[in-house]
Amino acid sequence: MNFALPRAWTTAALAFAAAAGLADGARAQPAWSAPIEAGPDIVTEFSRYRQNAAVTDDGGLAALALLGHVPSGYDPERGVAVVKRDAVTGAERWRRVFPPSSTSIGNAFAIAALPGGDVAVTGQADYLTRLDGATGNTVWSKPMPLARYYARAMSVDSGGNLVTGANQVSDASSVTTYVAKRAGADGSLLWETQLTPGGQFSVNLFVFAASDDDVLVVSGHAPLLPAPVTPHYYAARLDSATGAVLWRTELDQAFFTGADPADVALTADGDLVFGGNRAGLQAWIGRIDGDTGTPQWLVNHAGLQAVTDLAVTSDGDVVAAGGETYASATTGWAVARFAAADGAATWFRQLPLNPTRGRGKVIGIAPDGTVLLTGSCAVKSLCIAGVSPLDGADRWWYEQNYPTAADDFFYLPEAVFDADGALIVSVALPSANVTGGVSTVTQQRLIGPWVDAVFKDGFEE
């Protein structure tokens, strides 16, 4: 199956590029494009609380995908595929396929790069597994708490140890977050801490290893009943050596009320920044002190509406992207920049791209400050745009059309920078043959004006 398709520029995209003064040379070009194939169907969603791809220090790219049909709702009978390819050429090095497990939901997975090219993965039969970077063989495998179809997260500290988080639902009204540190060499358990926010439905989980190897956690729940929904989220800092809770801040009480955090990022000085939505109509951005858990500031932005993703600039400002909401579905892409000191909005832009499918997502920031955005932009098209950090003005543009896709809606893609500064994007393509999911995941390596980028947002830093 060949997904290295010729680019087809839509009328809307051409008009946008022309209006922005973007010549052909300002349009990014793909270096390679390849599907992830490991069976008759691959079903996946790329969401911010799922870590889908990681660049390894041996020039590789490791990615996760789900296998099998999803005939109705959340189906536990799904396997997980791990594929490692050469980041520069796209050539596949190896793949591992883990069969379905009746005790786990396959989409609660995460992947992280370890020193020497090895990778660690979760999501198969409730195990944390280290795979050899050269062969894909299992180095060690350790059980994790049952996460059902809820979130998992993973980070690697400065010593190559793995910090994992898993949200477990023990009954209809209790959610427990397990945070554990394991030795990277053999998987031995160094410590485990349980955090219990309560509630019925846990949807977001973020775990970061701070510069001093303390662990920063954001977790919580959105209860199913009673209506209206009142989310409950918290942030905590855990001691690097023991896992003891150093501080815990109840975010919905001390920081924001009735709002969900869609994304969380760690700043260079160790603070946590949050982006979320109030009632799906108004975006909020906030910051808390990473050392003490003290809220610093919180701002709302009605024009931005739904936040999907955050990035942090080199000077600590926050860039947030979003746009389309289920309530209006008319805004197109939207992006704004907020000052590090007080959260004041320095600029805001709406990009009129395929407004009925127009959620944008921040995927990175280049050393020159260029903000990289991605999302659906036209019928059956994925677009990536670079805008100025000073005012959001357009700098360059890339569009890939997928004529075989069943719909014009693409799940928001994951993207990572490789060692050469090229951008590798993983895209989930809709299919008419799969209910409740998509049937093909394809990856592209793009070479454009962001080459030599060394800073990015996300979990694979």
UniProtKB/TrEMBL annotation:
Any Pfam family: PQQ_2
The UniProt record lists the keyword Transcription regulation: no
SUPFAM superfamilies to which the protein is assigned, alphabetical: Quinoprotein alcohol dehydrogenase-like (SSF50998)
Keyword Signal: yes
Signal peptide: 1-28
Keywords: Signal
Record-annotated Pyrrolo-quinoline quinone repeat domain positions: 82-197, 237-407
Family annotation (InterPro entries): PQQ_rpt_dom (IPR002372), Quinoprotein_ADH-like_sf (IPR011047), WD40/YVTN_repeat-like_dom_sf (IPR015943)
Protein name, per record: PQQ-binding-like beta-propeller repeat protein
